[in-house]
Amino acid sequence: MTCKKTYIKRFSAWAPGQGVPELAFTDPLFRRRLSQISKMTIQVVHDLLPLHDDTKIVFLSFRGELSKQYKINKMQIEEGTITPAAFSFSVFNTPVAVASMALGLKGGYTAIYPGENSFNAGLKTASAALHSGVPEELVFVYADEEVPEEYAYLLSERPSPFAFGLLLNRISGHVPLSSLTEAEGTCQIQTPLAYLKSLLLSGKLHVPP
Fold first, then answer.
1. Is 207:175 a contact under the CB 8 Å cutoff?
2. Cα 27 to chain center, whole Å?
3. CA distance 167 to 175
4. C or N terminus of the chain, fewer CB within 10 Å?
5. Which tens digit of pLDDT belongs to each residue from 70-81?
6. What does the DSSP 8-state code read for residue 78?
7. Smallest Cα–Cα separation from 127: which of 5, 42, 21?
8. pTM of the model
9. Which domains does the chain have, with CATH numbers?
10. What is the rounded radius of gyration, in angstroms, for the C-alpha atoms of the chain?
């Protein structure tokens, strides 16, 4: 099995700079505590609708809830304590968990922190799950938020926040998952940004307004 057998049915993306999606389709009290990465994740999954209630999500991020984690670390240092509410919104799987809740998806999810910065590992995981014989379609989401100023010195280049989602299936006729990155019969995936650019420049996929 290779990722050649996996196809992209629909595509969505969000690149806000320092802004966040409005999420007008959610309850104000629900979205009030959400971070930038959680709001972007909800938005890109929402833009892939309609989805089956049992649609599974594979979520990949290199930094996760970094801003929330920073606030927790600061709280622990300065106050010596962590509130349960703050912790519950800071864990790595928070974005995909709240997206499932916001959109009523009951298919479950997988949250991946890729070893050795391998974006390809996330796509392979999504493709493998799709070909397990259980789901008819599956959502793959990549998202990373703005890096807090306090952490910027640790990075050689401060990455821009963005997110995108792919609705994947096994139906030939849609865009192959590897069609834009294939090299010598293998699936050579670069960075999430490089992959996003290749999707946008290909003209093969429509991005919802």
1. no
2. 21
3. 11
4. C
5. 888 888 888 888
6. H
7. 5
8. 0.87
9. 3-202 (3.40.47.10)
10. 17
Collect all residues with Cβ–Cβ distance below 8 Å to 64 and sequence separation of at least 6: 37, 92, 94, 95, 113
- Cis bond upstream, residue 50 (ω within 30): yes
Tokens 């807090």, residue located: 148
CA dist., res. 107 & res. 16, Å (int): 28
Picking from 141, 134, 135, 149, the residue whose alpha carbon sits closest to that of residue 196 is 141
State both tokens at 93: 């799987």
Give CA–CA dist 162/13, Å, rounded: 8
Q: DSSP state, 77?
A: H
Q: Could you say which residues of the chain have pLDDT below 70?
A: 1-4, 18, 116-117, 134, 173, 178-189, 203-209
- The alpha carbon of 158 is separated from its chain's Cα centroid by a whole number of angstroms, namely 19
